[in-house]
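Run Putative 4-hydroxy-4-methyl-2-oxoglutarate aldolase through structure prediction, thanks.
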Amino acid sequence: MSKLPVTAKTNQRDELMNQIDNLALLVDAYKEIASSTIGHVLDLGHIPHVFPMSPEQQVVGIVRTARLESTNASKLRQVLMSCQPNEVLLIDARQDLQRACWGEQRSVAAIHCGLAGVVVLGAITDRQALLKLKLPIFAHAVSCLTTRNEGESLVELNADIYINGCTVQSGDLLIADADGVFVLKLDVAHAYLEQFQLIEREEKNKKDNFFLHERIDEYYF
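Sure, done. The structure for Putative 4-hydroxy-4-methyl-2-oxoglutarate aldolase is below.
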């Protein structure tokens, strides 16, 4: 078996590092973009009816997907162990919308694994405990009915998730805040970034100019 020359290996390593750096820059840039700013421009990529545990929570990161198709969710532990730091785990639990697959213990494990946040297309539990943890959690609903270690645990890692006319895949960019959730393909995120940044600047300038002539404390608490 022929081996790559040292220069080729170096070039491959440099290219990989550049890709990682560019991805980190993209994530950082979108931390300044509100989900509603994206919603001014795009429909595709919006994930409906998913909101954070508290309005202050927000997260931007690269998606890792998982699909749960059983009452037993124990294999989510293996999913957590496979996630990379700063990823956002997106779990499709729509096979049973009334049964919570995520709670305090899994959130503690997610923090230990370095996840940036978790989005559940389904229900979560332990709401009071989750509000105290330093991990943004987004979900459809809260439920006291939970998954159980009964029967086989069917969890598909890196599953294609079809929702609202689009396909969410591992490697996509997720932007989530108090107004909702968007998931963008990386090429779309790059293509629209400058437009989104312009909208953000225009909105800020509009507000700043207004309060040059008005008392801000008459409008905000």
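DSSP finds six helices and twelve strands in the chain.
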